[in-house]
UniProtKB/TrEMBL annotation:
<protein>
    <recommendedName>
        <fullName>FAD:protein FMN transferase</fullName>
        <ecNumber>2.7.1.180</ecNumber>
    </recommendedName>
</protein>
<dbReference type="GO" id="GO:0016740">
    <property type="term" value="F:transferase activity"/>
</dbReference>
<keyword id="KW-0460">Magnesium</keyword>
<keyword id="KW-0808">Transferase</keyword>
<keyword id="KW-0274">FAD</keyword>
<dbReference type="InterPro" id="IPR024932">
    <property type="entry name" value="ApbE"/>
</dbReference>
<dbReference type="InterPro" id="IPR003374">
    <property type="entry name" value="ApbE-like_sf"/>
</dbReference>
<keyword id="KW-0285">Flavoprotein</keyword>
<dbReference type="Pfam" id="PF02424">
    <property type="entry name" value="ApbE"/>
</dbReference>
<keyword id="KW-0479">Metal-binding</keyword>
Amino acid sequence: MRRVEHIMGLPISLRIDAADSDGGDADGGDPTGGAAVAADRVFTWLREVDARFSPFIADSEVSRLGRGELEPHELSRDLVEVLDLCEEYRVASGGAFQVRLPGRGLDPCAMVKGWAVQRAAELLLAEGVTTFCLNAGGDVVSAGRPWRVGVRHPEQADRLCAVLEITDGAVATSGRYERGDHILDGRTGRPATGLLSLTVVAPSLTEADATATAAFAMGADGIDWAAAREGCEVFAVDAERRVFRTSGFPVAA
C-alpha cells in the first residue's frame, strides 16, 4: 500500500508492505483494510501536529506560546516534550541549534518534523504494522526489512551522492539545496556556512533530524560533533566539495 499527502509544507509518503496489508474480515472484506486504517491514523496525527505546532498558523499552540498567551502549566505534554528536546540540542550544540531567534519568534519546526514522523512510525508499530517506509520530504524512518534510501547530490538535483540501506532506523539530511539558507547558526543569527549537506543515520528520526540540523548549523565542526553522538553515522559534503563519511555509514552494496 502506498499513500502520499502534503502536510507541514512537504510531501509525506507511506509505503506498507503486503505482509502487513491484511485486516480484511472473514467474509471477504478489503484485504488492505488493516494497513488503510493504520495509514489513516498516521496522517490524522501528522495533520494534528501541523495544526498545533506550526508557527505559521495564528491559533496554533506554538504561536500562542510565542505571543505570551500561554503559561508553562497550560502547555500540552507534547509541546513540553518538544521544547525539552530543543533545549537538549541547544545545549549540546553550544547554541548553534536554536528555536528562539531574535526577529523570528518561537519556531520549533527543526525539531517537530522528525519528532512527529517518528511518533507516526511508533503508531504504525503499535497498530501491528511491522514493515513500512515513511518518508517526510526526504527524511525517512523504516522498519521490517532493508530499505534503500538515496542521498541527493547537494548541487545536482538529478544525481545522488550515495544510496543507503536502512533497516529499523532513520535517515535525515540537512542542506541548502531545497530552501536556500534557511538553517541559521543560533550563535550568530546568520545563515550556517561551511557545509553543503549533512546526512545522519540514527535509531530514530527524532535523533537523525535534530542531529543533522544542529550539525549543519555548526558548520564544518558539526561533522565530528554529529559523528561522536551515540548511535549516529554521518555523511557530509563541505563547502569545498570534500566528502566525509563515518565507517559505519550504511552504504548499500
